């Protein structure tokens, strides 16, 4: 089993070389009434043996699900393909009870591209740390966004929200009364 990163390594991962990685907190997720969280991490210059091994990628997928506390639905779908050497590698899709984890593991540039969407909140820091550590990458990029924020999940909800805002605006404007 891959050991957890040291505290110093964790700080480097979260801080990156010169910029802070924005991590969406559980508090923000709840406050914005998000439908889900979508995160992606691209890890560069990965360990050649791991990035080319279907078994290693399968192990990574199972361990990631455990660390994120999500329930796997079946085994990961794994396909090795690509006629062009610049895209040749493994693709993985893992259904989870709360949505999907997918990854593309390109062999020549030794790059891992991993995406997670879940309607259940997860700590994206765990995704970054574990993925970079597992594939032994030397750099990464990371993005994370809330999906369905604001509690608006349908056109009807959208119109209700607009109506509420318009009513509040009218209520706060001074009203002049003419005799």
Give the tags.
S-adenosylmethionine decarboxylase; 179 residues; six-stranded antiparallel beta sheet; elongated; alpha+beta; 6 helices
What does this structure look like?
The chain has 179 residues and is an alpha+beta fold. It has a single domain (7-171), classed as S-adenosylmethionine decarboxylase (4-Layer Sandwich). The protein is 36% helix and 26% strand. It has six helices and six strands. It has helices spanning 7-15, 26-31, 48-51, 54-68, 124-135, 155-172, and strands spanning 36-44, 77-81, 89-96, 99-106, 111-118, 139-147. It has a six-stranded antiparallel beta sheet with strand order 2-3-4-5-1-6, covered by helices on one side. Strand 2 and strand 3 form a beta hairpin. Helix 1 (7-15) crosses helix 5 and helix 4 (54-68) packs antiparallel against helix 5 (124-135). The protein is elongated and about 80 Å long. The termini are far apart. Residues 1-20 have low confidence and may be disordered.
**Could you state the order of secondary-structure elements as H and E?**
HHEHHEEEEHEH
What is the average per-residue confidence, as pLDDT, rounded to a whole number? 83
Radius of gyration: 21 Å
What is the CATH homologous superfamily assignment? S-adenosylmethionine decarboxylase
Main β sheet profile: 6 strands, antiparallel
Spatially, the strands of the biggest sheet line up as 2-3-4-5-1-6
What sort of overall outline do the alpha carbons produce when their principal axes are compared?
elongated
The strand count comes to 6
Instruction: Return the CATH architecture.
Output: 4-Layer Sandwich
Number of domains: 1
How large is the share of residues in beta strands?
25-35%
Query: What structural class should be given to the helix and strand makeup?
Result: alpha+beta
């Amino acid at each position: 089993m891959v050991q957890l990163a040291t505290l110093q390594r964790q700080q480097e991962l979260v801080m990156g070389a010169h910029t802070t990685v924005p991590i969406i907190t559980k508090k923000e997720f709840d406050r914005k009434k998000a439908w889900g969280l979508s995160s992606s991490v691209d890890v560069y210059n990965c360990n050649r043996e791991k990035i080319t091994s279907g078994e290693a990628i399968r192990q990574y997928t199972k361990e990631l699900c455990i660390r994120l506390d999500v329930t796997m639905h079946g085994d990961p779908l794994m396909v090795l393909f690509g006629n062009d050497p610049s895209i040749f590698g493994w693709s993985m899709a893992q259904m989870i009870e709360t949505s999907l984890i997918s990854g593309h593991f390109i062999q020549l540039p030794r790059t891992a591209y991993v995406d997670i969407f879940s309607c259940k909140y997860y700590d994206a820091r765990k995704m970054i740390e574990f993925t970079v550590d597992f594939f032994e990458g030397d750099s990464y990029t990371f993005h994370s966004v809330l999906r369905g924020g604001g509690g608006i999940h349908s056109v009807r909800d959208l119109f209700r929200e607009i109506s509420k805002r318009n009513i509040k605006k009218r209520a706060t404007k001074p009203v002049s009364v003419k005799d």
